[in-house]
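Study the following:
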Amino acid sequence: MQQEYFSVELSGSVHLAFPLEDLVKVIEIKPKNLYLMPGMAPFWLGVINHQGNLLWVLDSEDFFDLEQQTYKSKSTLKAVILQKQIKKNQRRLALTVDKLQGIISLDNPESLSVSSSLPSFYQPFIKGTIFGQGTAIDILELEQFFSVVQTAKSVKTLT
């Protein structure tokens, strides 16, 4: 069975992919449109008004503890809106990215490598890793990812 994933590059040359069916949209966010929410984990940049609804924006550099780039000073941020139905609840967030890589098709998604370019405490929401075009791409397990980000107060609590 063939499965399609959408691949992105985060800063520090970390590559992630997630099921194409869970990608809602790619957006650009102007930092002036971000509303900070006091008391939230530091990996949350804040919320934006997206088509009349509040959308949480997750700072991928902070969440994945990557080398900080200068995108926070850019005039716009790139983000992918991810959505997953978990039980009876619809989860949705915007994940900041450095670059969009595109669609990857896997003929046998069950045969993923278990090694990852991310530290071990991120493993619960990495489904596996594929290797292509000279780089490792970690496949994000969105159900686990959403569970972690909604309850974590900081990345340090994942350990």
In short: The longest strand covers residues 77-86. The first helix runs from residue 60 to 63. Residues 3-158 form a domain with the OB fold (Dihydrolipoamide Acetyltransferase, E2P) fold (CATH 2.40.50.180). Helices lie at 60-63, 142-151.
